[in-house]
Task: structure prediction
Amino acid sequence: MKRTINLVLIGLLLFSAGNLFSQETKIMVRAQAKDAKFIGTSMGGAKIIIRDVETGKILDEGLTKGITGDTEVILLSPRERYKEITTEKTAGYEASLKLDKPTFVSIEAQGPMSKKQAKVVSSTQLWVIPGKDITGDGIILEIPGFVVDVLSPQTHETISAGTEIEIRANIVMMCGCPVTEEGTWDASGYEIKALISSEGKEHKEINLNSTDKASTFSETVKLVEGDYEIEVYAYDPKTGNTGLDRVNIIVN
Result:
């Protein structure tokens, strides 16, 4: 009888010890645009994938949702140690992991999801301990770059030789924040150009200038007959941020 009781007690202890490790663990993951704010609902979010490094198994995945955050707090105020720069409304994805032992994981952010030509992948690795949540600002992954969209000319558009062609592009930060003259993201500090090439016949490089519409840049050019590729890029020499979009047209 005594032996039976002891075995039951040992079983209960082992069961309890197992439960100590088999716990739900929450991790807040955020994707922050380099030199800007957080990627959230307005840009289709950033896809978050958490994997067990040893097995490759996906432990959780989802999209960041929420607002881009407070410009003053994120960018303009002096940073203090341990002071959070996010709120409950700031874009993020709260992952929930079921772990029975400490696990070395990789955390990946892909974004922004609404702009495939601009999507960037950023990742990190860390140990996650069962029951030890990582909340608040959480894990912040930096997403570098600009989102560049060529608005004009259109893909595979046919244009008469010698006519003025408007090259027009929309350029924003990876969080969707506007690029404007003398704004928080000052267009005058960026290099925004169109590279034009045609089967070795002609190569041009022209500057695009700000327009009356925020984040929109434009210039006109005349081209001789040929098949052209137009690449529009943005470059910030202060941060190294870059972005590019391309379009192909026919001039005849």
In short: The domain at 22-143 is CATH 2.60.40 (Immunoglobulin-like). The mean pLDDT is 92. The two ends are 98 Å apart (CA to CA).
